[in-house]
Design goal:
GO terms for molecular function: hydrolase activity, hydrolyzing O-glycosyl compounds. Keywords: Glycosidase, Hydrolase. InterPro entries: GH (IPR017853), GH13_cat_dom (IPR006047), Glyco_hydro_13_lg-like_dom (IPR004185), Ig-like_fold (IPR013783), O16G_dom_2 (IPR045857). This is Glycosidase. With 572 residues, the protein is an alpha+beta fold. Helix 6 packs parallel to helix 7 and helix 12 runs parallel beside helix 13. The protein has 13 helices and 29 strands. Helix content is 23%, strand content 23%. The chain folds into four domains: 122 residues, Immunoglobulin-like (Sandwich); 281 residues, Glycosidases (TIM Barrel), CATH 3.20.20.80; 53 residues, Oligo-1,6-glucosidase, Domain 2 (Oligo-1,6-glucosidase, domain 2); 64 residues, Immunoglobulin-like (Sandwich). The protein is globular, with a radius of gyration of 26 Å.
């Protein structure tokens, strides 16, 4: 047994309260080292004749990679407190006891040697809105979704879809256009809209905010936005706005005051200014988003900045009833601010959804006192590399997904914001080299994977576009130019997500090892199992026989065509 590969810590993704009664404990071992893992646990004060009374239960293996195996115990701690350790039995019969103070050959008699869960306070654990797990999101870039009120369009706005999209293009998309498009979204099955910024700004993307309390006049006004939120809510659609609190726009009044008054400005400590006078070229002498001089970084450790931004955060909930905040460049803002932000918005609306933009392992923000979720970029990266680029093989893909499933506590994974494309990436059909078949495989995996799926506007009808600004083209409303087959497929996936428990977060995800070249995984509940078969190659592949009802397939034959798929339902 490779003892150096055994790992557990009584924090974060390795030890957490899943619900108000249950604790999850996760253990790592070297791949195929352990034949059996058992949990030893008990109340730390429960002794009889100086002998600790404990219980021993088996621990389930929940994932395997080429290097490590994961095990998860689900236990209700006696009297809300617990000491515990792991008994590991190797295939050759060797037994070890893995405790906080080391590895033992027999159970330690010293209670202090064991891992400790001092007291289970549900209020200290991670809690996120339950509604998120059942939500299907649609991301809207407001300037490009629909022009509902040409009278407020920018004077230099081009005709819809006319010309080449540039970083400075305007087309007149607005909030009234979104209201006009709600029938379309409802028919698609959407239950949540994520808007990129809608606040006053000189740009088309609005990530350079001028006034956080005002709707951009080219998008509409507050009355229109209120009608939009009410119209969404009446259709069962949640609304999430984009908070750009890492940086402001160049025309933001406090920054303009600094430009005017220099060191005498009362706002000089709102930003990270290295010296005076202010310079923007060749690089700004103040901190900014990247080195973009028009996006000066806000000093969120400054109390006045905190008060201003927290006021903004609560205002749009109190005045308009929004349901979520997506946090731009969230990983570059200090943790103390985000803790205050969470307390502020949750005090107004307990079930508001908080999503941080982070492209990497984000456990430090997901401990229950900052975000509810992050945008799941590692998922789409692995999917595209495996199915489209074929730059990683099936085993590497499975390793990455198993690792991702254990990167966070289970309930965090169930609330992750799962995207395949966004305003920051190329469009999905472009990423797949124009292949609708590959795109369908990506969507099938996205909608059957734990978390909350999001569709980037227009991707459901096969819109194309490379990296920004190409991916921010105008929504195509002419059905004769839409990929209606792809749209129908996504509509079907949304329906299955809502009606088949195997597609939901209530089912457990795991891979099935087979000799087939296909990728095969299952979603399982106590009553049923869905088996997903994906052919990620251009070649036809014979599929092993699986009993059950076929509820979704690309073809009816035993031979699964290139980039084909099949979903089989088995009732236990």
């Amino acid at each position: 047994m490779e003892k150096a590969m055994i790992f557990h810590r009584a924090i974060n993704e390795y030890a957490y309260g899943y619900d108000d009664q249950t604790i999850h404990l996760v253990l790592q071992t070297k791949h195929k080292d352990a034949e059996k893992v058992e949990l030893i646990y008990g109340d730390p004060y429960d002794f009889e004749d100086k002998k600790w009374n404990y219980t021993v239960v088996p621990v389930e293996r929940t994932g395997e990679t080429t290097t490590v195996d994961y095990y998860k115990a689900k236990v209700e701690p006696p009297n809300n407190r617990m000491r515990y350790g792991f008994k590991i039995t190797a295939y050759d019969g060797e037994e070890v006891f893995y405790l906080e103070r080391g590895i033992f050959t027999e159970p330690s008699k010293e209670i202090g040697d064991y891992f400790c869960f001092p007291y289970f306070h549900p209020s200290d654990e991670y809690h996120a809105p339950d509604w998120v797990k059942d939500t299907v999101w649609y991301q809207i870039f407001p300037e490009r979704f629909r022009n509902g009120d040409p009278s407020i369009s920018p004077s230099d706005a081009a005709g819809w879809e006319e010309g080449v999209v540039t970083p400075k293009s305007f087309y007149g998309g607005d909030l009234q256009g979104v209201i006009d498009g709600l029938d379309y979204l409802e028919d698609l099955g959407i239950t949540g809209i994520y808007f990129t910024p809608i606040f006053k700004s000189p740009s088309n993307h609005k990530y350079d905010t001028v006034d956080y309390y005002e709707i951009d006049p080219h998008f509409g006004d507050k009355k229109t936005f209120k009608r939009l939120v009410e119209a969404c809510h009446s259709r069962g659609i949640r609304v999430m706005l984009d908070a750009v609190f890492n940086h402001s726009g160049y025309e933001f009044e406090p920054f303009q005051d600094v430009l005017k008054n220099g060191q005498q400005s009362r706002f000089k400590d709102w930003f990270h200014i290295h010296d005076f006078p202010i310079q923007t070229e060749p690089k700004p002498n103040y901190e900014a988003f990247g080195f973009v001089s028009r996006m000066p970084k806000l000093h969120t450790q400054n109390k006045d900045v905190q008060d201003y931004l927290l006021g903004v955060s609560k205002y749009w909930i109190e005045a308009f009833g929004i349901d979520g905040w997506r946090l731009d460049v969230a990983n570059e803002v200090d943790h103390r601010f985000w803790r205050k932000f969470r307390e502020a918005v949750k005090s107004v609306k307990e079930d508001i959804y908080i999503v941080g933009e982070a492209w990497h392992d984000s456990m430090r923000w997901l401990r229950g006192d900052e975000f509810d979720a992050v945008m799941n970029y590692p998922l789409v990266d692995s999917l595209v590399r495996y199915i489209e680029e074929q730059s990683i093989d099936q085993q590497t893909f499975k390793d990455r997904i198993v690792h991702l499933l254990h990167m966070y506590p289970q309930h965090v994974t169930e609330h992750l914001f799962n995207i395949l494309a966004s305003h920051d990436t190329a469009r999905l059909i472009t990423q797949t080299g124009g292949s609708e078949d590959k795109a369908k495989l990506l969507y099938l995996f996205q909608f059957s994977y734990p978390g909350s799926p999001c569709i980037y506007y227009g991707d459901e009808i096969g819109m194309v576009g490379g990296e920004e600004p190409e991916s921010r083209g105008c929504m195509i409303w002419d059905e004769t130019r839409q990929d209606l087959d792809l749209r129908t497929f996504i509509q079907t996936l949304i329906h299955l997500r809502k009606t088949e428990v195997g597609f939901s977060n209530e089912a457990t995800f795991s891979f099935i090892d087979t000799t087939d070249e296909c990728l095969i995984y299952q979603k399982e509940t106590t009553d049923e199992r869905l088996i997903f078969i994906i052919n990620p190659t251009a070649e036809a592949i014979h599929v092993s026989d699986y009993e059950g009802d076929v509820i979704l397939t690309s073809n009816e034959d035993d031979i699964l065509q290139g980039y084909g798929y099949r979903v089989i339902k088995q009732v236990k």
